């Protein structure tokens, strides 16, 4: 849940607002799941292995996946 909160804060909105907006979009916010990285980018709603340009790993997860909604 910490990564989800970090992602919402980076967007300047609450976690609830982030998830509400993501529910209706074809592209949503995602964040790297590595503990020491908070790289964010737009991803597909069901993304669980997106590319992190900072870590050079497939660790970017969509906000919907982080919340367990997908």
Structure description:
Strand 3 (50-52) and strand 4 (57-62) form a beta hairpin. With 70 residues, the chain is α+β, with helices and mostly antiparallel strands. The chain has a four-stranded antiparallel beta sheet with strand order 2-1-4-3. The protein is globular and about 30 Å long. The chain is 33% helix and 26% strand. The protein has one domain (2-66). The protein has helices spanning 2-11, 15-23, 63-66, and strands at residues 28-32, 40-43, 50-52, 57-62. The longest helix is centred in the first third of the chain and has 10 residues, at 2-11.
Explain the layout of strands and helices.
Elements: H1 2-11, H2 15-23, E1 28-32, E2 40-43, E3 50-52, E4 57-62, H3 63-66
Q: Identify the strand order in the major beta sheet.
A: 2-1-4-3
Which of globular, elongated, flat, extended, rod-shaped describes the shape? globular
Number of helices: 3
Overall structural class, as computed from helix and strand content, comes to alpha+beta
Number of strands: 4
Radius of gyration (CA) equals 11 Å
Report strand %.
Answer: 25-35%
Mean pLDDT: 96
Provide the helix percentage: 25-40%
Q: Report the uncertain regions.
A: none
Largest sheet: 4 strands, antiparallel
Q: Count structural domains.
A: 1
- Rounded to the nearest angstrom, the distance between the terminal CA atoms is 15 Å
Order of helix and strand elements from N to C terminus: HHEEEEH
């Amino acid at each position: 849940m910490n990564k989800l909160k970090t992602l919402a804060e980076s967007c300047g909105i609450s976690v609830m607002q982030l998830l509400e907006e993501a529910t209706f979009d074809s592209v949503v916010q995602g964040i790297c799941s590595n503990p020491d990285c908070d790289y964010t980018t737009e991803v597909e709603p069901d993304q669980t292995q997106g590319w992190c340009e900072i870590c050079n790993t497939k660790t970017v997860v969509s906000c919907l996946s982080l919340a367990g909604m997908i």
